[in-house]
């Protein structure tokens, strides 16, 4: 007896089209920008915290010059870094062409700004110098009014440049506490300089906060040159820049290179995504 067997339906194996998007490129952009995103969020948080500690949000009049306020600068830098990192990592992860385009535009604008700023520094060197002088004068005048500016100028004088004042210690006469005439109103710091102007002593563990008292007073009994820095910070920063010109240029070109690389990677990933969409449609 012959049994008829019904023909079984033929199962066709359809090979799935492989994606056109490079996983390596995608997760490279995502990984780098997650770091920038977190770094931007951290900087922004520190800036907002600093302003909240000074109660700036309730009284904006406390900021004498917002452009020179360290907390405000941190907020601006943190916001820009956060936005760029967000558009880059989310755009890459979600394969969102709009966010990737925004990321590339942000990097391009930032790149153009940096190149323009670097060019202006060389072309308008004297103007930059005068603006830096005005900014430093503002820091000196408001030294006791803003703790952020006070910490910044102390770091510049003591740790970074080992200097005192703009052109020298006499510039601290601009501050009401250190002005020689302030002795009449009972300021113990009159005719002195901040402790950050003092030279470090060998094996010094605890900094003497009163080391700058009376050093500009006529007839001061000790050799001032052995106690405080007599070089102005303007001259010191010029010398530091000349000494580190190669390093600064190298860091600058490295930064530009990574920004251009980021723009190219974002554009290539966008092209891959468009190619994939066109293939499936």
UniProtKB/TrEMBL annotation:
Coarse class of the protein's main subcellular location: membrane
Disulfide cross-links: 164-180
GO cellular component: plasma membrane
Subcellular localization: Membrane
Chain coiled-coil ranges: none
Transmembrane segments: 25-51, 71-93, 100-124, 248-269
Keywords: Disulfide bond, Membrane, Transmembrane, Transmembrane helix
InterPro entries: Tetraspanin/Peripherin, Tetraspanin_animals, Tetraspanin_EC2_sf
Signal sequence segment: none
One family name in Pfam for this protein: Tetraspanin
Membrane topology of the entry: Multi-pass membrane protein
PANTHER family in UniProt: TETRASPANIN, TETRASPANIN 26A, ISOFORM B-RELATED
Protein family per UniProt: Belongs to the tetraspanin (TM4SF) family.
Protein name: Tetraspanin
């Amino acid at each position: 007896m012959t049994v008829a067997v019904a023909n079984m339906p033929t199962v066709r194996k359809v090979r799935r089209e492989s994606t056109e998007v490079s996983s390596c490129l995608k997760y490279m952009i995502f990984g780098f920008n997650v770091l920038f995103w977190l770094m931007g969020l951290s900087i922004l948080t520190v800036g907002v915290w600093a302003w909240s500690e000074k109660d700036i949000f309730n009284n904006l009049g406390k900021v004498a010059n917002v452009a020179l306020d360290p907390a405000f600068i941190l907020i601006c830098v943190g916001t820009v870094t956060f936005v760029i990192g967000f558009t880059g990592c989310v755009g890459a992860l979600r394969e969102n062409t709009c966010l990737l385009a925004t990321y590339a535009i942000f990097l391009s604008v930032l790149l153009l700004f940096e190149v323009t700023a670097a060019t202006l520094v060389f072309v308008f060197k004297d103007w930059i110098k005068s603006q830096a002088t005005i900014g430093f004068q503002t820091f000196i005048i408001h030294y006791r009014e803003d703790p952020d500016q006070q910490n910044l100028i102390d770091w510049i004088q003591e740790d970074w440049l080992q200097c005192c004042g703009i052109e020298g210690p006499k510039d601290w006469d601009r501050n009401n506490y250190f002005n020689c005439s302030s002795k009449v109103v009972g300021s113990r710091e009159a005719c002195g300089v901040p402790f950050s102007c003092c030279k470090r002593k060998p094996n010094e563990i605890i900094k003497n906060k009163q080391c700058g008292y009376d050093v500009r007073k006529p007839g001061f009994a000790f050799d001032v040159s052995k106690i405080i820095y007599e070089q102005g910070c303007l001259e010191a920063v010029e010398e530091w820049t000349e000494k580190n010109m190669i390093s600064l240029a190298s860091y600058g070109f490295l930064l530009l290179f990574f920004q251009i690389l980021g723009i190219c990677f974002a554009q290539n990933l966008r092209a891959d995504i468009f190619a994939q969409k066109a293939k499936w449609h």
